[in-house]
Every structure is written in structure tokens, then in C-alpha cells.
Amino acid sequence: MSADTRSLEFNSVARSRGLFRLGPLDLQVPAGAWATIRGPSGSGKTTLLQLAAGLERADSGRVMLSGEDLTDAPEGRLAALRRRVIGFVFQEPRFIAHLSVAENVALGLVPEGLAARERRARASAALERLGLADVAGRRPEQLSGGERQRVAIARATIHGPRLLLADEPTASVDEATGALVLAYLRELHARGATVLVSTHDPAASRYADLALQIQNGQLVP
Amino acid sequence: MAACGLVVALALLLSGIALNEGQRRDSLAGVAAGPAVRCTWLSFGHEAPLADTQLSALAALPGVVRCVPLIVGRIELGGRPIEVRGVPWSELARESGATRGARVENESEVLLGVEVARALDLGVGSTLALDARLLRLFTVAGLVEDVGTFVSRKAVVCELEEARAVFGLTDAVSEAWLFVRDGYEAAVAEAAERLNRAPGAPLGGLLAAETRAVRARAVARSHDLRGGHFAALFAVALALAVPAFGALSYQGVAPRRHAIGLMKTTGWSTADVLELVALENLVIGVGAAALGLALAWCWTRLLGAPLLAWLFVPDLEVFPAQRLPARFTPLPPVIALVAALAVTLPGSLWTTWRTARAMPSEVLH
């Protein structure tokens, strides 16, 4: 399998946090795949996604992204990957409270040196795609739970990531919003993005090219 | 809160520098307007009365255009030590440019410096009692608003003979001012001091002559020292403020951990975060320096530099009833900006760096 077709690869990756231990586990997600991870709470889904996004480092093993080893990558390189290649959606949407919705969405564009007008335009477009054109100027605390999750997805996808990692994106929203979120993620996937979603939602699993199950920090068949 | 403290501290610094510069400008203007050579009599190294008999010898020195005898002394007025100058009639008539109100027309009138007038709450037409060896009553004829050759904003100026009477002198003055031809300053001063070696020179003391250049250097030096002491004390305060501000920044960074974690999740590097914090500090620094400058201007120009003026002007009260000259030059605001950045940047950058270098998952955990 060439580097181009292996979007994400875990080789004997292990990570301990307190009493919890993830792995060692091996995993390959092909480029352009829609993969889901299912498992009970505390089984290691979030840790796995954060390792894949370079938000934390493995204690041992190798995390490879399109053939590039993230394990020992310098901090600046990881930041560049998160800015240009990876999108990450938290289970609970998180925002900077004193910034507007549009400013939160465009947060990752600031280090790219884009002009404020360009950032606003791209944030508006991202919000519009998720049906949130009218909330751009509001503060995050003025939004409903569903709106907040969609804004978080807009922020994670504003730069057109090739790898989207979503941690239970439909867990805290109603059914209609969940369907909207999944439809948007499907759209991104259709445009070529690799999507790795941790979920309990059967609707999300329905589209999976690769369905993973995790339990007590280990992938199970 | 910390930023407010910074603004007040910068205002204090800028006020002090402005006051010192204002005093320096006034003093140097006084020196420039004064005589080319000032002669005094020194007895045991201290200034003592200069006998009238020596004035003619001074006036006769080559290059001397005019020799003006003066009394310059201090008496207590309204509980404050006030400078009193006695000047000959003929010379006082030349000083009308610096005064407001009538010229002195008889021996019972005085000119009053505006700072003295404000401090004593006197005006044109007020009656003033000068009492050293002898009590004399005077009427204020005019107020001195500018620096003149013989008049000052900080002094009471009366006729020479009246001043002699007040201080109990009959055949002596406190000093003689020599006005000389251009380029003769040093030569006249040297010739005046040579009179000490002339046959028949008075014993019991020495004639000392001081040129304008020497006086200007001495004035500048005294203001440099005063300003230097103030700046040194401020530097100590600044050195103490840096760790204090750092500790405040450390406490203040906790709410920002969340924001920094999110920024890093969306692709900000540690350097990007530090750059943003540095920019924020620059904005705070510029704002603090600008506010400090505005506060200093109000403090000195409008309020008369309460709590601070007495550090720069001897015998002044903590809350002076007068407005002091203050001069704002371009350099102090630059110093204030550098000081603001020196206080805010190290603590903020260090605490931010500690947060930003951690992995985003740790920061957001």
C-alpha cells in the first residue's frame, strides 16, 4: 500500500493517561475512507482521535499521516498540519467566548496571514453551507446546542481539511441537526476528505467504509 | 487593575521628568538672562556681604559694561521661605517686559513673582510685609510672569536700598552682577579674582567670580542629578514591578488556557500565540504610555503636581498652591513605552509560553 492511499496509520501506538491505557494498537484508514469508531464511554475513542490529530503525542509506536510520521514531528509542523490538512471536531463544542461566531470560525486562518476581510468572507461561506448565515455576528453563548455544534464543524472544515476527525459530532444535538451534520460531513467526504468519526449514531455507521470497535483501549474485531 | 497601576506609575515617571525639565528650562533661562559674570564675597568658603567699596573696582575692569549691585536673600513669608531681591531703580525700569501691572514707581512698591503670588494668595495692590532685620510694608505694583534679568516668578523684587534696610545692610550688597562685552566673560572673571591679590585688597575673604557658562553647567548638573536620582528610584520600582506583573500575568493566564488550547487545535503554533500576546502587550504598552502621558500632563499642568512637586522644588508643600513649570519632551513618552513593555512583556510571554508549549489536549483537558 503506497503512502498516498494510507491516509492515516497507527503502528503499535500506545498512550497512557492516569490509569487508562490505549493500545498498543495498529490501524490503517485508507485515503478517502469514511471510518467510524464505536465503543463505550472511556474506551479510548477521544484519545485515538487526538493522537491522529497530533493534539497529543503517543508514548510509543508511530502515528503516520499520508506517510509522514507525526510521532516526533516538531510542534511547528504539527501546527501547520492542523492548519492545512486536519480538521478536528470536539464532542462538546468549545469556543473563545469574547470572539464572535465568525471570528471563532476563522480562528485557524489568522496564522495563515489572511486579511480580515478574506477571513470574514470564508467564515461566512462556511457558516452559510451549514445554514448559519445569520449567526456570524453573534457570541457563541447566544447559540443553541445544535447551532454551536454546526459552528464547531464550520471551524474545523473552513480550510478544506483532507482528514476530518470528529468526536461524537451528533451526540449532543437533536435528530434533525444530527442529520444535517452528517449530510455535511458526507459532502466533505464526497469531495475526497478522509473522515474518521467516533459515534454511537447508527446513521453515521451506515456510510462507513471501515467500522472500528474499541473497548478498554483496544480495537476489537 | 494591573494596567491601571502601570498607567499611574508611568504618569508619575513622566510627571517627574516633565517637572525636572521645566525647572531646568526655567533655571537655564534665568542664567541666560542673567549677568555674564556674578561676583560674590567668600568668607571661610561661604558667601558673605560684598562691600560697596569693591564695586567701583569691579566696574572699572576692562570689558565690563555695567556693574549692578544686588541683594539676594531669603525671608519667611506665610510660613514659606521666599527669595527677596533688591535691585537698583534704574535696572528695575528695564524689566517691564516680564511683568503684568504697573512698574515700580516708588520705594514702597514691589514686584511679585506669580508663583509667590499664587502661594501667598496676593495680587496687584496687595500689601506685603517683609521682615528680616527690619519690618517694611510694601504694595504689590506688578506680577512677574516671565524670566527677566533681575526678576523671577519665584521672588519678591524691591528697590536695592529697601532690601538693604530689610536685611540690615548699610554699606554692602550680597553680590554684584557684571555685564560685559561679548567674549569677555572669562577674562573679566579672571580679572575680578585677581583683585584679591591687588595691593590694598580687603582681608578676611576672597572675591569669587562665576561666569554664565559655569553657572549654566552647575544648573544643568544639579538638574541631571535630581532627574538621575528620580530615574534611579523609578528603575528600582520597575525592577520590582516586572516580577509582580509576571505573577499577575500568571494568575491571569488561567482563563486564557482554554483559548490558547483552541488556537493550537486550529493550527496556531507556539510562536503564533506568542506573537499575538506580544502584539497585545505592545497595544497595552502604547495605550498605557499614552494614558500615562495624558495623566502626567493633567497632574502637572492642571493640578500643580501634588504629591510630587516637593521632590523637585525645595521648600514646597506636598499639595502646592501653585502651578510649576513642566516641560514635556519627546523622549519621556518613548521611555514610558519602553518601561511599559519592560513591565508587561516578560511576565506575559513567559506565562503564555509555558501554556502554549504544552500539547493542546493537555491545555484543554
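qc> The beta strands of chain A are 6-17, 20-30, 34-38, 60-65, 68-69, 86-89, 163-167, 194-198, 210-215, 218-220.
qc> done
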